[in-house]
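USER:
Class, as today's exercise, take the chain set out below, and explain how the chain folds.
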Amino acid sequence: MMSNDQILKPLTPHQVQRYSRHIIMPTVGSNGQRKMLNSKVLIVGAGGLGSPVAIYLALAGVGTIGIVDFDTVDITNLQRQILHYDSDVGKRKVVSATETLKAYNPDVNVVNHEEPLNSENAMEIISKYDVIINGADNFPARYLTNDASYLNNKPLVDGSILIFDGQATVYLPGNGCYRCLFPEPPPPGEVPSCAEAGVLGMLPGLVGTIQATETVKIIMGIGSSLSGRLLLIDGLTMEFRELKIHKNPKCPLCGDNPTVTELIDYEEFCGFTGS
């Protein structure tokens, strides 16, 4: 979360012009734009959700965008992952993502973490950022990102997609976490992945844009976030529903008597013992 006593640099004439449509908004103004330029956001995954999140945050003027991904661009990604082009097939995703973001906004500082996020590096990586965005597509990474964000006292902007359905929420420090909603992962194979069940190509854009919006609201300290609310999106009917979610006093991570006080083996926790 952004500190109220941080020293914000004045906007340059170029920045005033570039971000003028933000600055003229009374709720944003010069101060809000300077907060974005001073902020550091980490995106876990440069895939379907990470793509629109990264692009819109770069366009909005978020100063530093960190990307965690160790995968390469595959032709099957191009149906939905708008960070990457046909000519990028075979290229490391962090490299492709950096090139695209720099093309949109040369001033953005892109930090590549070309490695799997794991129990050994997650605390250190996440500690360097103000807001964490979960674009992971597997349960071990989702629980790991949640736990490391909570233990680092960082806000987590969460999203997920599958077939025609999407979800988005925000976990603010002290106001619940992913484990409050899902204390235990489903058995391996019970919930199919996008590679197994598919996903509508436009759906990541819809959910990812919501995640980007929630992120800049947190950075600027404006509006009401999705904290305490799970937004459910049905792409087939275009219905949006909300579920109220609450901090679970029995949560093993953020509850009254936590049993998870450090990062664990998330592959084992999620039942992937053969990995």
Q: What stands out?
A: The longest strand covers residues 156-162. Residues 61 and 261 are 35 Å apart (CA to CA). The longest helix spans residues 203-220. The chain has a mean pLDDT of 95.
